[in-house]
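Data deposition worksheet. Section B asks for the primary sequence of the deposited chain exactly as it was used as input, without tags or linkers unless they were present during the calculation. Section C holds the resulting structure in token form. Section D is free text for depositor observations; keep each observation to a single sentence. Incomplete worksheets are returned to the depositor.
Section A, Depositor: J.P.
Section B:
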Amino acid sequence: MTIAAAVFDAFGTLVEIQRPTHPFRKLIQEGRRQGRKPQPDDLRVIMTHQLSLAEAASAFGISVTADSLGRLEQSLEDELASIRPFPDALHAVGMLQAAGVRVGVCSNLASAYGPVIRQIFPYLHGYGFSYEVGAMKPEPAIYRATCEQLGVNLGCDEAEGRVFIVGDSARCDRDGPRQLGGCGFLLHRGGKGDFSNLLEFAQAVLER
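Section C:
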């Protein structure tokens, strides 16, 4: 049986933010102080468009002074600088690539975070980032766009090759792919998911 590809979520799966500062949340809170009510699609706007903090403020009609914007941008830089890979992520990706498995990442994130993922994992076969695709997990378009980059079809068909997807969100990384006929799995480092670490996932991929 052929393994076509393995796809990882990014934050909470491949990498973690060790010193979160929540710059976009702070921007929304500033809007609230100015009388703007947070909207249900605020997160989607941030994660499906290539927006800087200044551009997000403009899109939401939030006024920020140069000093305030500078503080927000510094907050963002501090958060980005604190992103680190999980040790098991580096080993799992290396194990799969050494075995000839095509590896990609599929993640909901704002545009400032994508370059950091690419820097930490520079040799993946596909990077399905929501702000580039214009869709968020669990929407079908982002899984399909990621698989298109990998040159595979999303599915669990043994003849064509399976695409295994793993992440720390049951809704986005397990259930979303499964509803489309894919092989989705939940990573829960506390032991309440399909896998408790990514080495277990990589080993399972190679054994199936």
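Section D:
The first helix runs from residue 23 to 33.
Residues 3-16+84-207 form a domain with the Rossmann fold fold (CATH 3.40.50.1000).
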